Amino acid sequence: MGNVDVNIVSWNINGCGTPVKRKKVLSYLKSHNADIAYIQETHFANENEALKLKRDWVGKVFHNSRSSKSRGVMVLINKRLNFVLLKESRDEDGRVLALQALINGVQVVLCNIYAPNRDEPNFMDEVNKMLGNMKGQILLGGDFNNVMDEYIDRSAINATSSTRTGTAIDALKEDLSVVDIWRLVHPMEREYTFYSHSHKTYSQIDYFLISKSCVNL
């Protein structure tokens, strides 16, 4: 990312409402040397609950939630980063949080998403539009609830399960000039981030899409 070397972690924690869970989350992220953490499904009802994670190594907390204890996305920034917020954008559903910022003088756009678990292409269209109105090297990550390649991102191939959301993701990648960084480094490797008990299949639905200008292609 320019001349900035940062370690970014994404994690769907499925709720973080107790002191014990918050401590475990912070300890885990610290053990993985996280500079920036994208957290999904915080289940916080308000901003005050999110600020309870501003301790230990965490210098800044940004959060987007609904009024009820569901969904919710959060970005944690390590104290050691020289981080200056320039602009913040969010949706009204507690699923998207985008931060235009300077990190050690480099302008970036950090975007954390928790996508719907149904075929809803409008969601990705809105993310595409939101990021198109922000300036900087894009680091889009989170729980996409959708596979990008049916033949390698799922343990059981279902050639008929392509979605309109998948098409919207392809359009986003093209419009914003971003690339799946993990797949770029591991073009044929099969690694999964989710198991469906009902379908008895593994799939990769968590991704990082970053600006092509950040990598040597």
State the name of the first-level CATH class: Alpha Beta
Strand content: 25-35%
Largest sheet: 6 strands, mixed
CATH topology: Deoxyribonuclease I, Chain A
CATH superfamily, by name, is Endonuclease/exonuclease/phosphatase
Principal-axes geometry comes out as globular
Taken together, the total number of domains comes to 1
If you average the pLDDT, what whole number results?
A: 92
Radius of gyration: 17 Å
Uncertain stretches of 5 or more adjacent residues: none
Strand neighbour order, sheet with most strands: 5-6-7-8-12-9
Q: In brief, what are we looking at here?
A:
The chain has helices at 19-31, 47-50, 121-132, 164-176, 181-185; strands at residues 8-12, 36-40, 58-64, 73-78, 83-90, 96-103, 106-114, 137-143, 178-180, 194-196, 201-203, 206-211. The two termini are 14 Å apart.
